[in-house]
Specification:
Blueprint lengths: L2 H14 L5 H12 L9 H5 L1 H11 L8 H9 L5 H17 L31 H22 L2 H10 L2 H9 L4 E10 L5 E11 L6 E5 L4 E4 L5 E13 L1 E13 L2 E4 L5 E3 L4 E8 L4 E2 L2 E2 L1
């Protein structure tokens, strides 16, 4: 395969795996070219010709420098230095897709010189052929598609939006840490009334799925499922994060508004109210004689 095909395949694999950081994608792309350093006429071989010629003479092309025996241990070094993981991952993708070439690749050299292929000869591609060009176009389309999916929060986020499942939305919220999140969807109240809207997520109460939300329009706390049940729910993360505080003794809130959980349930506090336990707030508040 040619350099553009190797880069496109490696990037698509990375995006599908959830890699979104641009520096890491650059490392993957670089790693996708690295095995061809054993070929003096390759894109990387022409740049590093002083290494390419001796490596080609010593190992040949698509042998040890293309072998998983080399690149899997290299990738595992990523536990010591992260860039190794992405460079090695790109190199592994190179070796795998080269098995779609007419000549195949010795994936386990020097353990065995057996040539590995991904398909019968009539379905394999010659380097720089029309078939490879079509494959490159497909990979570029997939790269665009997976990049779009990543910009929408990944496959899981798209699935959550499609299913609008309450339990899945709560699980997604719990993975966001101190990020300020909202729940969008439909609520059904005990009297049968159905309301569609957007509610601020305060936190979870005693139970895993017992969510506490705040209706900013009505200035009202709702404990789910005691006060209402979600028919549809989609979690939305904002760019803001909660300010947090842990109080071991009650204190009076002088200015501002905050939410606090003294034991098993969240409460809203305003000026003059006492707060205790775990306290969260978006805007600055004043507690006692000290500003937070």
């Amino acid at each position: 395969m040619t350099a553009p095909t190797h880069i496109a395949f490696a990037v698509v694999c990375s995006l599908v795996a959830g890699v979104e950081s641009q520096p890491f994608l650059y490392l993957v792309a670089g790693g996708a070219l690295l095995p061809d350093i054993d070929h003096p006429q390759s894109a990387v071989g022409r740049v590093f010709f002083f290494l390419s010629y001796p490596l080609n003479k010593l190992f040949g092309h698509r042998a040890f420098i293309h072998s998983l025996v080399l690149w899997i241990p290299f990738t595992l070094l990523g536990f010591l230095w992260t860039p190794f993981f992405y460079i090695g991952g790109g190199a592994i993708s190179h070796a795998v897709i080269d098995a779609w070439n007419l000549s195949g690749v010795a994936l386990l050299h020097p353990i065995t010189e057996k040539i590995f292929v991904l398909a019968k000869k009539q379905y394999r591609l010659a380097t720089a052929s029309r078939g490879e060009f079509i494959l490159l176009i497909v990979l570029l389309m997939l790269a665009w598609g997976t990049g779009y999916i990543g910009s929408r929060g990944g496959l899981r986020s798209i699935l959550l939006a499609f299913l609008a499942n309450y339990q899945m939305a709560v699980e997604a919220y719990q993975r966001e840490g101190t990020a300020v999140c909202w729940m969008e969807g439909k609520l059904r109240y005990p009297d049968g009334t159905i309301e569609e809207g957007r509610w601020l997520i305060v936190g979870t109460d005693a139970g895993k799925d017992d969510l506490c939300i705040f209706d900013t329009k009505k200035n009202k706390m709702l404990h789910i499922p005691k006060h209402a049940m979600f028919l549809k729910a989609m979690m939305k993360k904002s760019e803001k994060t909660w300010h947090t505080l842990k109080l071991t003794a009650p204190a009076t809130l002088k200015e501002g508004h905050a939410f606090f959980n003294p034991a098993k349930q969240w409460h809203l506090a305003g000026p003059g109210d006492s707060v205790f336990g775990y306290v969260i707030y978006e805007d600055p508040v004043t507690l006692g004689a000290e500003g937070l």
